[in-house]
Amino acid sequence: MSAPVRRFVTLFLVHAALLVGAAFILLPFVWMLATSIKPPEELFTAQLQILPDRFYGVENYRFALENAPLLRFALNGVIVCGGILVVQLLTSIPCAYALAKLRFPGRNLLMTLVLLGLCIPVQVPALPIYIGLAYTGLLNTYFSMMLPFFLSVFAIFLFRQFFRSFPDDIIHAARLDGMSEFEIVWRIVTPSAWPAIAAFSVFSIVAHWNDLYWPLIVISDIELATPPLGMLFFANAESGTNYGALMAAATILTAPLVIAFLFARRRFIQGITMTGVK
Amino acid sequence: MASAVAISAPRPTSRRQVLIEKLIGCGFVFPVCVLLLLLNIVPLGVLALLSFTDYQMGAVDFGFVGLDNFAKALGDPVFRRAVTNTLIYVAIVLPGSVVLGLFAAVLIHGRLGSRPFYEIVYFLPITTTIVAMAAVWQIVLHPGLGPVNAVLQRLGFEPVMFLSDPAFALPTLAVIGIWQLVGFNMILFLAGLSAIPRDLYEAAEIDGCGSPVDRFLTVTWPLLGPTTMFVIVTSSITSFKVFDTVVAMTKGGPMGSTEVLLYAIYLEGFQYFNSSYASVLTLIFLVFILIFAVIQTFVLDKRVHY
Fold it and tell me: Residue A140 in contact with residue A224, Cβ under 8 Å?
């Protein structure tokens, strides 16, 4: 075989393997979209047909939107993710700055606790926090959904790493100019950490938009459900009856993050894979 | 880890400045300390305390029962099955997602024009709500209306009850677990691959490693060692925490074949309100996670020194 032919064959095999993998990954997405526009009578007769004979998308999406408060779920997702992210940033940025640049008693102890905290998934303190929320009558509130995530040791750890490389000279100069530490944190150091903050925000939003475990525990009021919990309610209510509408609902609830991902692919990949801590 | 904590902060000159810095430092970390106490330290204490009691959520009083809960957990067939199922799940997802992730990364690494396309496709499952995708998988694998069984039947096989046959349910969930994780691992491997200097490949070629397989075995694989260890540990933790697909697709069934550790904890703690027993199960869960975390710390340290 001549070199160009061999190169062509190699390239062909590589793409063939990658496309098989891609087909496996895309199969459920394609099927979700295809089923969401199929009429009920075609579901059992044309299992291998992607496009329907009769377009039924309008009816399926309308049924989904009318029978489940999907937009409400999405709004709840926005509220919960937004609330969590704002508190995470407000608490972790000053703390990370102090750990990186200030000397105060107990700093090493706090840093050790932060590192230990990295190992503890939310499922561990979940039960005591749940009991506490139940006794204070706070179950079934936005607050209860956000509370365990107000503290992000991961954010503290990440921002501290970032702040440590911030030049001390600039901080000294700012102090000499009469800036308070508060101003230094929020007006000088924080803007410089923009890439880390953006990456962490993506990580936080994706994690909490998709989180099922905690909302499932503290929320029983469907009006407060976030997208995964709402999807679970809807799937249980509609199971076996209306697959087209179920897929329409899945499409609507999956769309926001997928669209965001397509527009900001680099940011997303960077944010989610920044570390293996999930 | 301890050495990472000792860093050189600017040394303030006057005693007054030192005092101010201490006060400001304490003020800046105060909210985090409160949250740390409230959300991690106190709950861990409560968990440890509850595990020695017979407390049930809503009960007025409770007594100490020593190690009874631990003994019960060790002898509980349901719990033991949950641990076994979780480990089987990890044993399928871990090699599957790591090997396929590595394979995809090596193939994609050399692509220029098509790389963004493959990256988007393989990463797509990570950004999606798994409960929604679980509903889709249920239809895809449905014996009556799914394409997978339609293809099997065309090929002359009997339809497979992927989610209602006890022999198939857990492996099916594991395949979906691989589907979720493979793109994540691929991206980590791609980062590892781009850190390998190009001249090493040229040197290997001069030394007679001409074929792609030779190059992979002599250069890529040894240099990817640290990345691989890291991917293995994170994949173990992620797959060990399997929960969403179980809740959305099988609810532990059929016949307990997909009951996993987190689902068992969820049922005991938040459905049956056996708080004390759930505390014990949570502590056992924590022990498993800490084992992974210790390996991770060890691996991460090695990675830094690499």
Answer: yes
* Residue carrying structure tokens 């303190």: A125
Q: Which residue of B has its CA nearest to A250?
A: B132
- Are B8 and B117 in a shared domain? no
d(CA B109, CA B55): 55
> Is residue B61, in this structure, part of any structural domain at all?
no
> What pLDDT score was predicted for residue A46?
63
DSSP for A66-99, written as a single string = HHS-HHHHHHHHHHHHHHHHHHHHHHHHHHHHHH
Distance from CA of B305 to the nearest CA of A (A): 17
Measure the CA angle with vertex A48, ends A45 and A51; round to 5°. Answer: 90
Per-residue model confidence as pLDDT tens digits over B52-103: 988 888 777 788 888 888 888 888 899 999 999 999 999 999 999 999 999 9
Regarding whether B78 and B9 lie in a shared domain, the answer is: no
Nearest Cα of chain A lies from the Cα of B51 at a distance, in angstroms, of 11
Verify whether the Cβ–Cβ distance A269 to B119 is below 8 Å: yes
pLDDT recorded at residue A23:
93
By residue count, chain B amounts to 306
Domain of residue B121, residue span = 68-305
Task: Kindly state the average pLDDT of the residues B271-281.
Answer: 92
Asked if residue B100 is part of any domain, the answer here is yes
Number of domains in chain B: 2
**Interface contact flag, A108 B43, Cβ < 8 Å:** no
Contacts of A106 in chain B (CB under 8 A): 26
Architecture of domain A68-273 in this structure: Orthogonal Bundle (1.10)
Helix (H, G, I), strand (E, B) or coil at B270: helix
Angle, vertex CA B164, rays to CA A24 and CA B253, nearest 5:
110
Smallest CA–CA distance, residue B77 to chain A, in Å, is 22
pLDDT of residue A24: 93
- Are residues B41 and B75 both part of a single domain? no
pLDDT at residue A54 greater than cutoff 80: no
> How confident is the model over A61-85, as a mean pLDDT?
91
Tell if the CB–CB gap between A128 and B247 is shorter than 8 Å.
Answer: no
- Give yes or no for residue B48 having a pLDDT over 70: yes
**pTM (2 decimals)?**
0.89
| CATH number of the domain residue B224 falls in | 1.10.3720.10
Residues B147, A31: C-beta atoms closer than 8 Å: yes
pLDDT tens digits along B131-165 = 999 999 998 998 888 888 888 888 888 888 889 89
